TrEMBL record:
Annotated GO CC locations: cytoplasm; nucleus
Protein name: Protein YAE1
Predominant place of localization: cytoplasm
Entry keyword annotation includes Hydrolase: no
Entry keyword annotation includes tRNA-binding: no
InterPro entries on file: Essential_protein_Yae1_N (IPR019191), Yae1-like (IPR038881)
Domain Essential protein Yae1 N-terminal positions: 67-105
Organism of origin: Maudiozyma barnettii
Keywords: Cytoplasm, Nucleus
Taxonomic superkingdom: Eukaryota
């Protein structure tokens, strides 16, 4: 997935979330109505709204809600971008390594898979193990979304060893 695709996906997500939050905020008027229906309009006026017509009060409430909503969306955009900026280098490095390992395994499987059943099984298993959902799952990273102390991804390291073993078995020199 390219950076442009990610940016478009992020934009669409934020626009959709913005619409959902706005709908929820707009429907809160019904939720916040007096449960018993016994208070008159004059009793519900706060000191802050005293002297304003009902239309002006409604307009003021809408602007307050809109400002609140805009603040939430803006905050999410900023934090999401910061998270993307922080996580992209790690994800790109992992993605590059996955591609390199799968490419080598695919080549080995193409050349030697007919005679080596275990290689064929390992290639099939690698296609499953090295899926992005498995590689970026929560159990791999700590609470700060960092790799373990040694900085090595455990699944990736396991497959590096297997691919190196097959490369050595078939005298494939990695450059």
């Amino acid at each position: 997935m390219s950076t442009d695709d990610l940016a478009l996906l992020l934009k669409n997500f934020l626009e959709t979330e913005h619409k959902v939050i706005y709908r929820v905020m707009a429907n809160q008027d019904d939720i916040l109505d007096d449960v018993w229906g016994s208070d008159s309009d004059s009793e519900m006026l706060s000191n802050e709204n005293a002297g304003y017509s009902r239309d002006l009060q409604k307009l003021r409430e809408q602007h307050n809600k809109r400002g609140y909503l805009d603040g939430i969306v803006s905050s999410k955009e900023t934090n999401l971008q910061q998270g993307f900026n922080a996580g992209f280098p790690t994800g790109a490095t992992i993605g590059f390594e996955i591609g390199r390992l799968l490419g080598r395994l695919q080549t080995l499987n193409y050349k030697y898979g007919q005679e080596n059943e275990q290689l064929k099984k390992d290639y099939s298993q690698a296609l499953n193990d090295l899926k992005i959902g498995n590689m970026l799952s929560k159990h791999v990273f700590d609470t700060d979304y960092q790799l373990p102390e040694d900085g090595k991804h455990p699944i990736l390291e396991e497959w590096k060893i297997k691919v190196s073993s097959y490369s050595a078995q078939y005298n494939i020199i990695r450059k």
